[in-house]
Amino acid sequence: MAQKKYLQAKLTQFLREDRIQLWKPPYTDENKEVGLALKDLAKKYSDRLECCEREVEKVIEEIRCKAIERGTGNENYRTTGIATIEVFLPQRLRKDKKRLLETRLHVTGRDLRSKIAETFGFQENYIKIVINKKQLQLEQSLEEQGVTHNVKAMVLELKQSEEDVRKHLQVEEEEQNEAELKEKQIQRTKRGLEILAQRAEMVDPETMPYLDIANQTGRPIRIPPSQRKSLMLAMGYHEKGRALLKRKEYGIALPCLLDADRYFCECCRELLDTVDNYAVLQLDIVWCYFRLEQLECLDDAEKKLNLAQACFKNCYGDNHQRLVTIKGNCGKEKVLFLRLYLLQGIRNYHSGNGEEAREHLNKARELFKELYIDPSKVHNLLQLGFTAQEARLGLRACDGNVDHAAIHISNRREELAQIRKEEKEKRKRRLESINSLRGMGYSTRAAKQALHQAKGNLDDALKILLSNPHMWWLQDSDPENNRRQASPSQESIDQLVYMGFDTVVAEAALRVFGGNVQLAAQTLAHHGGSLPADLQLSGEDSSSTPSTSPSHSAGTSSASTDEDMETEAVNEILEDIPEHEEDYLDSTLEDEEIIIAEYLSYVENIKSATVKN
């Protein structure tokens, strides 16, 4: 398959260089049939490439037919408005299948999915469509999603076709259940990440893991609040996608990676240039397309790889100098460059650029030799109580020296333990401050916002709350914290009157603050004994009673079920977040070794043919 793609790319280059238009005479006659001149052209190019003439002729004919189909589609689109979409199918359905589909662009994504399912024999609910590196949205029209004439659509299959199911009746139910589980898994991933993002600042520092972005030393980076949710969603989808890549579930991994890319693009450029997460994501996306054998669907693969390379340079410095200064070595990060060079070599080979492909593949091979780890050394470190992952990372950081690796791993453990201790204490102090403000009657949300504005200073946060009493209305989702008292107790009113406040004002303040005497007193005192106008209730508000639902107890079971489902979704996300902060740098390189050898054999064949010529 890879060799055929190279031949197609090379012949396309020749045709462009020679300015040959295959859809016109003498290569195509008036009936759009192949002309006799095509055979002479095939012989010319087969001699030039030292390839089988019959194979070259077959590929040129495929290019000619595709050009005619494209021209017919263009004419049809101009006259009727009916667009042509090139559909890229999963590997098992690619042979002898027409991959062009006609549709109007005002139809919805659901309509297109139904048409693709019907045309190519899928079950509609068990496929996902990716166009322009985005999942097709079912309720929006194709026009709204930027779908145009001659666009490429990739089909990701969550379940086998009905034909295959009929061949394997004994596992039909299992396959359907598997597909349904995968779809539910995708939805749970989305829900779990949304919950984590919403709870970004409501975690227990003692027990609750969460997503952070760190610099090269492992210390968290301060994230602007406006970008925190986007960044958490981006990192969450990326971690989920990486977990699926490890399990080789590429069809489910790709939507997660594309969602991660979308959310990362909502973050500022300065942030993306500070850390290597975004660069690693670009490699993972291209790798996923490659493993799905759909690189031709990724029109900007070269752009993504160049973006990754530029981002690595910004993060690590020229020749990794910044990385060496900070961490003392760059051995672990070289794994990323090995994959970068490998993907650059593959992309160039598929584009017909044999020399560039050889150059990048040789760089990948040299790096592989440098990063290869003797299994006996890993075993020695395992005997010392380290994990296999720590052993691989430590050996690569110390150029394969076992003693140095053991010291490096131990030191790194101590450094990270100290960083985690400091961060835990910092978050614990923050929670204590939040609880102090809550004890004064403020909601958790109001306390957090005030502390954020005060940069964590409790006294300044209290001043902010007293100066801005409307912040009291920043309520939590807990209805118990959102109560407003229609009729304050006489005892509470008397307490405020005893402090010197007017009876009417005291009662109004207690209504506003849900009967909280301390909060009402603080606010009245701060504002000279009066209630600010923006806090005074209208007659309708003051006569209202706390909202109580007669079905509250009946709904408890349903609410509990929803909470359990949310907990399950969050836990599923957290399970895929690796414990080791350098997990993304750890690789056995087994797949890379095989692929490097495979593609080097392809480019060596090109070299042999060139030498013969």
From TrEMBL:
Compartments, as annotated in UniProt: Nucleus
Region (Disordered): 531-567
Coarse class of the protein's main subcellular location: nucleus
Keyword annotations of the record: Coiled coil, Nucleus, Repeat
Keyword Coiled coil: yes
SUPFAM superfamilies xrefs: TPR-like (SSF48452), UBA-like (SSF46934), Ubiquitin-like (SSF54236)
Domain UBA intervals: 372-412, 422-468, 487-527
GO terms of biological process kind: positive regulation of proteasomal ubiquitin-dependent protein catabolic process; proteasomal protein catabolic process; protein ubiquitination; response to tumor necrosis factor; response to type II interferon; ubiquitin-dependent protein catabolic process
Low complexity composition-biased segments: 538-560
Sections of the chain in a coiled coil: 158-192
GO cellular component terms, semicolon-separated: cytosol; Lewy body; nucleolus; nucleoplasm
Protein's UniProt name: NEDD8 ultimate buster 1
